[in-house]
Amino acid sequence: MTTTTDAAASSTEVGVVPSFDVTLRIRRFNPESDTEPHWEDYTVSVHATDRLLDALHTIKWEQDGSLTFRRSCAHGVCGSDAMRINGKNRLACKTLLKDLNPKKPITVEPIKGLAVEKDLVVDMDPFFAAYREVMPFLMTSGNEPSRERIQSQEQRDRFDDTTKCILCAACTSSCPVFWGDGQYFGPAAIVNAHRFIFDSRDQAADQRLEILNDKEGVWRCRTTFNCTDACPRGIEVTKAIQEVKRALLTRKV
Protein backbone atom coordinates (compact mmCIF):
# COMPACT_ATOMS: atom_id res chain seq x y z
CA MET A 1 0.00 0.00 0.00
CA THR A 2 1.37 3.43 -1.00
CA THR A 3 1.18 6.09 1.63
CA THR A 4 0.50 9.76 0.91
CA THR A 5 4.10 10.56 1.81
CA ASP A 6 5.46 7.92 -0.59
CA ALA A 7 3.24 9.20 -3.40
CA ALA A 8 4.40 12.76 -2.85
CA ALA A 9 8.04 11.70 -2.87
CA SER A 10 7.54 9.74 -6.08
CA SER A 11 5.80 12.64 -7.80
CA THR A 12 8.76 14.94 -7.15
CA GLU A 13 11.11 12.48 -8.88
CA VAL A 14 8.99 11.94 -11.98
CA GLY A 15 10.09 14.10 -14.91
CA VAL A 16 13.20 15.44 -13.18
CA VAL A 17 16.00 16.02 -15.69
CA PRO A 18 19.44 15.75 -14.06
CA SER A 19 21.79 18.69 -14.48
CA PHE A 20 25.49 18.65 -15.34
CA ASP A 21 28.26 21.19 -15.88
CA VAL A 22 29.58 22.24 -19.27
CA THR A 23 32.36 24.60 -20.23
CA LEU A 24 31.81 27.10 -23.01
CA ARG A 25 35.01 28.45 -24.56
CA ILE A 26 33.86 31.72 -26.16
CA ARG A 27 35.86 33.89 -28.53
CA ARG A 28 35.61 37.40 -27.11
CA PHE A 29 36.40 40.75 -28.69
CA ASN A 30 35.63 44.23 -27.40
CA PRO A 31 36.78 46.91 -29.89
CA GLU A 32 36.98 49.44 -27.05
CA SER A 33 39.60 47.51 -25.10
CA ASP A 34 40.98 44.64 -27.23
CA THR A 35 43.44 44.73 -30.10
CA GLU A 36 42.90 41.05 -30.90
CA PRO A 37 40.17 38.47 -30.11
CA HIS A 38 40.81 36.09 -27.22
CA TRP A 39 39.17 33.03 -25.66
CA GLU A 40 37.40 32.98 -22.30
CA ASP A 41 35.99 29.91 -20.50
CA TYR A 42 32.69 29.81 -18.62
CA THR A 43 31.28 26.86 -16.69
CA VAL A 44 27.51 26.59 -16.38
CA SER A 45 25.09 24.05 -14.96
CA VAL A 46 22.68 22.82 -17.65
CA HIS A 47 20.21 20.07 -18.47
CA ALA A 48 20.36 17.62 -21.37
CA THR A 49 17.36 19.32 -22.96
CA ASP A 50 19.00 22.76 -22.87
CA ARG A 51 20.20 24.45 -26.03
CA LEU A 52 23.42 26.36 -26.47
CA LEU A 53 21.37 29.57 -26.41
CA ASP A 54 20.17 28.66 -22.90
CA ALA A 55 23.78 28.36 -21.73
CA LEU A 56 24.66 31.71 -23.32
CA HIS A 57 21.71 33.30 -21.52
CA THR A 58 22.93 31.86 -18.20
CA ILE A 59 26.37 33.38 -18.76
CA LYS A 60 24.92 36.72 -19.87
CA TRP A 61 22.39 37.00 -17.06
CA GLU A 62 24.27 35.41 -14.16
CA GLN A 63 28.04 35.54 -14.82
CA ASP A 64 29.13 38.17 -17.32
CA GLY A 65 26.71 40.81 -18.55
CA SER A 66 29.24 42.11 -21.06
CA LEU A 67 28.93 39.00 -23.26
CA THR A 68 27.34 40.12 -26.53
CA PHE A 69 25.42 38.04 -29.07
CA ARG A 70 22.33 38.32 -31.25
CA ARG A 71 19.10 36.44 -30.73
CA SER A 72 15.42 37.14 -31.20
CA CYS A 73 12.75 34.47 -31.63
CA ALA A 74 14.84 31.63 -30.09
CA HIS A 75 12.90 29.12 -32.19
CA GLY A 76 14.89 28.79 -35.41
CA VAL A 77 12.77 31.23 -37.41
CA CYS A 78 14.55 34.61 -37.29
CA GLY A 79 18.06 33.28 -37.99
CA SER A 80 19.73 35.95 -35.87
CA ASP A 81 21.76 33.64 -33.59
CA ALA A 82 23.95 31.94 -36.20
CA MET A 83 27.46 31.29 -34.86
CA ARG A 84 30.30 28.78 -35.15
CA ILE A 85 29.82 26.05 -32.58
CA ASN A 86 32.60 23.47 -32.32
CA GLY A 87 33.84 24.69 -35.70
CA LYS A 88 30.50 24.42 -37.53
CA ASN A 89 27.92 27.06 -38.39
CA ARG A 90 24.72 26.46 -36.43
CA LEU A 91 21.84 28.30 -34.81
CA ALA A 92 22.39 28.50 -31.06
CA CYS A 93 18.65 28.12 -30.46
CA LYS A 94 18.49 24.79 -32.32
CA THR A 95 21.68 23.22 -30.98
CA LEU A 96 21.20 20.86 -28.03
CA LEU A 97 24.09 20.75 -25.60
CA LYS A 98 23.84 16.97 -25.27
CA ASP A 99 24.70 16.68 -28.97
CA LEU A 100 27.97 18.60 -28.58
CA ASN A 101 30.03 16.19 -26.46
CA PRO A 102 29.59 18.28 -23.28
CA LYS A 103 32.47 16.46 -21.57
CA LYS A 104 34.84 18.68 -23.56
CA PRO A 105 34.87 22.49 -23.78
CA ILE A 106 32.35 23.70 -26.38
CA THR A 107 33.88 26.37 -28.59
CA VAL A 108 31.68 29.28 -29.62
CA GLU A 109 32.83 31.99 -32.02
CA PRO A 110 31.36 34.41 -34.56
CA ILE A 111 30.61 33.29 -38.12
CA LYS A 112 33.50 33.82 -40.52
CA GLY A 113 33.95 36.20 -43.43
CA LEU A 114 32.14 39.17 -41.84
CA ALA A 115 33.79 41.79 -39.65
CA VAL A 116 33.34 41.20 -35.92
CA GLU A 117 31.69 44.14 -34.16
CA LYS A 118 31.80 42.66 -30.66
CA ASP A 119 32.11 39.11 -29.32
CA LEU A 120 29.69 36.97 -31.36
CA VAL A 121 28.12 39.88 -33.27
CA VAL A 122 29.26 40.46 -36.86
CA ASP A 123 28.55 43.23 -39.37
CA MET A 124 25.73 41.87 -41.53
CA ASP A 125 25.62 44.86 -43.90
CA PRO A 126 27.69 43.24 -46.72
CA PHE A 127 25.52 40.12 -46.49
CA PHE A 128 22.28 42.07 -46.85
CA ALA A 129 23.77 44.27 -49.57
CA ALA A 130 24.33 41.16 -51.72
CA TYR A 131 20.82 39.96 -50.88
CA ARG A 132 19.25 43.24 -52.01
CA GLU A 133 21.28 43.29 -55.23
CA VAL A 134 19.57 40.16 -56.60
CA MET A 135 16.16 41.89 -56.33
CA PRO A 136 14.53 39.42 -53.90
CA PHE A 137 10.93 40.36 -54.65
CA LEU A 138 8.26 39.51 -57.20
CA MET A 139 8.54 41.59 -60.37
CA THR A 140 5.73 41.67 -62.93
CA SER A 141 4.56 43.97 -65.72
CA GLY A 142 1.23 45.23 -66.96
CA ASN A 143 -1.78 46.38 -65.01
CA GLU A 144 -2.47 45.39 -61.43
CA PRO A 145 -4.32 42.06 -61.53
CA SER A 146 -7.96 41.88 -60.52
CA ARG A 147 -7.48 38.40 -59.05
CA GLU A 148 -4.69 36.27 -57.62
CA ARG A 149 -2.00 35.01 -59.98
CA ILE A 150 -2.74 31.35 -60.56
CA GLN A 151 0.07 28.86 -60.08
CA SER A 152 -0.02 25.08 -60.26
CA GLN A 153 1.41 22.86 -57.53
CA GLU A 154 4.10 21.73 -59.96
CA GLN A 155 5.09 25.35 -60.62
CA ARG A 156 5.24 26.03 -56.88
CA ASP A 157 7.30 22.91 -56.24
CA ARG A 158 9.91 24.19 -58.70
CA PHE A 159 11.18 26.79 -56.22
CA ASP A 160 9.60 25.71 -52.92
CA ASP A 161 12.88 24.62 -51.31
CA THR A 162 14.51 28.03 -51.60
CA THR A 163 11.55 29.81 -49.99
CA LYS A 164 12.71 28.36 -46.65
CA CYS A 165 15.70 30.72 -46.30
CA ILE A 166 15.72 32.71 -43.04
CA LEU A 167 18.75 34.88 -43.93
CA CYS A 168 20.86 33.62 -41.05
CA ALA A 169 24.06 33.78 -43.18
CA ALA A 170 25.12 30.31 -41.99
CA CYS A 171 25.57 29.13 -45.59
CA THR A 172 27.38 32.20 -46.90
CA SER A 173 29.76 32.43 -43.94
CA SER A 174 30.63 28.73 -44.26
CA CYS A 175 31.83 29.23 -47.86
CA PRO A 176 35.64 29.24 -48.38
CA VAL A 177 35.25 31.47 -51.43
CA PHE A 178 33.39 34.06 -49.35
CA TRP A 179 36.08 33.93 -46.65
CA GLY A 180 38.71 34.93 -49.20
CA ASP A 181 36.61 37.33 -51.26
CA GLY A 182 34.00 39.44 -49.53
CA GLN A 183 32.75 40.63 -52.94
CA TYR A 184 31.31 37.21 -53.81
CA PHE A 185 27.51 37.28 -53.71
CA GLY A 186 27.50 34.16 -51.58
CA PRO A 187 25.10 31.21 -51.37
CA ALA A 188 22.26 33.00 -49.54
CA ALA A 189 21.93 35.72 -52.19
CA ILE A 190 21.93 33.10 -54.95
CA VAL A 191 19.33 31.03 -53.09
CA ASN A 192 17.04 34.06 -52.84
CA ALA A 193 17.56 34.86 -56.52
CA HIS A 194 16.68 31.23 -57.33
CA ARG A 195 13.43 31.60 -55.41
CA PHE A 196 12.24 34.24 -57.93
CA ILE A 197 14.07 33.13 -61.10
CA PHE A 198 12.04 29.93 -61.11
CA ASP A 199 8.76 31.47 -59.95
CA SER A 200 6.31 31.23 -62.88
CA ARG A 201 4.67 34.51 -61.82
CA ASP A 202 7.88 36.55 -61.99
CA GLN A 203 9.09 38.32 -65.13
CA ALA A 204 12.60 39.42 -64.15
CA ALA A 205 14.49 36.12 -64.39
CA ASP A 206 16.78 37.41 -67.17
CA GLN A 207 17.75 40.46 -65.10
CA ARG A 208 18.65 38.35 -62.10
CA LEU A 209 20.58 35.88 -64.23
CA GLU A 210 22.65 38.71 -65.67
CA ILE A 211 23.40 39.97 -62.17
CA LEU A 212 24.57 36.50 -61.13
CA ASN A 213 26.57 36.09 -64.35
CA ASP A 214 28.99 38.67 -62.92
CA LYS A 215 32.53 37.60 -62.01
CA GLU A 216 31.46 37.63 -58.35
CA GLY A 217 28.31 35.62 -59.07
CA VAL A 218 27.50 31.93 -59.39
CA TRP A 219 30.67 31.03 -61.27
CA ARG A 220 32.73 31.58 -58.13
CA CYS A 221 31.03 28.59 -56.48
CA ARG A 222 33.41 25.63 -56.09
CA THR A 223 30.73 23.09 -55.13
CA THR A 224 32.21 22.19 -51.75
CA PHE A 225 28.74 21.63 -50.21
CA ASN A 226 29.72 23.58 -47.07
CA CYS A 227 26.65 25.76 -47.59
CA THR A 228 24.27 22.81 -47.83
CA ASP A 229 25.74 21.23 -44.70
CA ALA A 230 25.44 24.52 -42.77
CA CYS A 231 21.84 25.38 -43.65
CA PRO A 232 19.66 24.99 -40.52
CA ARG A 233 16.55 24.77 -42.73
CA GLY A 234 17.82 21.85 -44.80
CA ILE A 235 17.82 23.77 -48.09
CA GLU A 236 19.75 22.05 -50.89
CA VAL A 237 21.83 25.17 -51.44
CA THR A 238 24.45 23.67 -53.74
CA LYS A 239 21.73 22.17 -55.94
CA ALA A 240 20.03 25.58 -56.21
CA ILE A 241 23.31 27.21 -57.27
CA GLN A 242 23.83 24.53 -59.94
CA GLU A 243 20.30 25.13 -61.26
CA VAL A 244 21.05 28.84 -61.62
CA LYS A 245 24.28 28.00 -63.49
CA ARG A 246 22.34 25.68 -65.81
CA ALA A 247 19.73 28.40 -66.43
CA LEU A 248 22.53 30.80 -67.41
CA LEU A 249 23.93 28.31 -69.93
CA THR A 250 20.58 27.30 -71.44
CA ARG A 251 18.59 30.50 -70.78
CA LYS A 252 15.71 28.25 -69.78
CA VAL A 253 13.95 28.51 -66.40
UniProtKB/TrEMBL annotation:
Signal peptide: none annotated. The keyword Cell wall biogenesis/degradation does not apply. Binds 1 [2Fe-2S] cluster. Binds 1 [4Fe-4S] cluster. It comes from the Bacteria. Residues 155-177 form the 4Fe-4S ferredoxin-type domain. Pfam families: Fer2_3, Fer4_8. Its cofactor is [2Fe-2S] cluster; [4Fe-4S] cluster; [3Fe-4S] cluster. Pathway: Carbohydrate metabolism; tricarboxylic acid cycle. Keywords: 2Fe-2S, 3Fe-4S, 4Fe-4S, Iron, Iron-sulfur, Metal-binding, Oxidoreductase, Tricarboxylic acid cycle. Residues 20-114 form the 2Fe-2S ferredoxin-type domain. It is an enzyme of class 1 (oxidoreductase). It catalyses: a menaquinone + succinate = a menaquinol + fumarate. GO terms for molecular function: succinate dehydrogenase (quinone) activity. Its EC number is 1.3.5.1. The keyword 4Fe-4S applies. InterPro entries: 2Fe-2S_ferredoxin-like_sf (IPR036010), 2Fe-2S_ferredoxin-type (IPR001041), 4Fe4S_Fe-S-bd (IPR017896), 4Fe4S_Fe_S_CS (IPR017900), Beta-grasp_dom_sf (IPR012675), Helical_ferredxn (IPR009051), SDH/FRD_Iron-Sulfur (IPR050573), Succ_DH/fum_Rdtase_Fe-S (IPR004489). Belongs to the succinate dehydrogenase/fumarate reductase iron-sulfur protein family. This is Fumarate reductase iron-sulfur subunit. It comes from Angustibacter luteus. The lineage of its organism: Bacteria, Bacillati, Actinomycetota, Actinomycetes, Kineosporiales.
